[in-house]
Fold this sequence. Notes:
- The radius of gyration is 21 Å and the shape is globular.
- By secondary structure, it is α+β, with helices and mostly antiparallel strands.
- The chain has helices spanning about 5-20, 20-30, 35-40, 60-75, 75-95, 100-110, 225-260, 275-300, 305-330, 340-350, 360-370; strands at about 115-120, 135-140, 140-150, 155-170, 170-180, 185-190, 205-215, 220, 265, 265-270.
Amino acid sequence: MKQVVIRRTVRSDAESILAPLTAEMERTAKFPREWASFAAAKHYFGLEIPRVWGGAGLDAVSACIVIEEVSRVSPAMGLCLSVHNSVAAQPVYLYGNDAQREKFLAPMVKGDTIGTFCLTEPNAGSDASALETTAVREGDNYILNGTKIFVTNGGVSGVNLIFTMSSSDAGRRYYSLFIVESRHPGLDKGPPEELMGMRGNPVCSLSLHDCRVSCENRLGGEDEGMRIAIATLHGGRIGIGAQAVGIAQGCLDASLVYSRERVQFGKKISEQGAVQGKLSDMATRIEAARLLVYRAAFLKQKGAEYGKESAMAKLFASETAVDAARAGVQIHGGYGYTKAYAIERFYRDAKVCEIYEGTSEVQRMVIARALLK
Ligand SMILES: Cc1cc2nc3c(=O)[nH]c(=O)nc-3n(C[C@H](O)[C@H](O)[C@H](O)COP(=O)(O)OP(=O)(O)OC[C@H]3O[C@@H](n4cnc5c(N)ncnc54)[C@H](O)[C@@H]3O)c2cc1C
């Protein structure tokens, strides 16, 4: 399908099916299962997974367009798709063997099972290598113990990608990655976090108490976990970049509508130079952010290196989303500070793009390392 058609279709579906649910999501913070069923039928849960495995078989740029258009209406559901697709389904497809793909990927792609990526812990955020969750081998099993926090999609997930420390030697630490089903004995979930934004996405903690999993649950080789985490985050940052572009576009579109309606000093505020300046700056930065995101996605789909480019895309797009939300609230004046307009929600939703999958400071570290190597 052509990318213009994908954009038009996803936008129209988001406006007709998802937009009417956003007020309820804000009020109750409940995950909209009816939308998830719709999204599953549209293959949104297997965006880049090849068709032989039941996915949509989209290229990386097209997958960005889907995440962007969903985020333009609901950043919380854009987040759900970005995490499920980029950092859960993708690594299961890329690093899993056929048995793991049959068992775990097939239901993920159908949307029967939503995935998570569990790296962050109470004492390991930006420094993921400080993680304390352990995996101790016992014959053909591993015993997992530890706590993961800020697990996006956690409240509704069926499978969870858990990063652990599997061994250490002379001060060096080695990590392994496991796929653990939510119903597995020894895995418990905490209640949803009370977040500033992204209401409707049940972000929670997840704890492992003597959770015994088979070697068949290990994704990738023993001690390969950190390599997989870093590679996966390179892709994930493209998804968050696309989410941020969608949020920024949502802010611009809402501001265009409002500024054409609101009359002050006898004319529409859209005719005021200062307002036009804000709209122009928003639009220009959004285009630049979009191009950075698509460029990183294009490099990814070509099989080229894209770690620096995905960090640049995520950094610029998330700062663009925060700036667009701030300008959007300003254009809406006092009404922008009320829940009557979507811009208030965008303002709260945008901020976390600068935090998850590596803060802006961490993106600058990744970029600087690539420049200076
Ligand atoms: C809504 C939400 C959803 C999330 N979803 C997930 C998820 O699904 N899976 C997951 O694993 N994690 C998830 N996270 C966690 C997120 O990735 C972390 O919050 C993030 O990586 C930052 O870690 P931290 O919160 O521990 O902050 P810290 O690492 O403690 O950082 C605090 C501040 O110090 C700065 N800082 C730290 N080290 C340096 C340095 N060396 N140089 C300069 N500045 C530095 C940071 O940039 C930041 O500004 C989520 C978080 C939120 C809020």
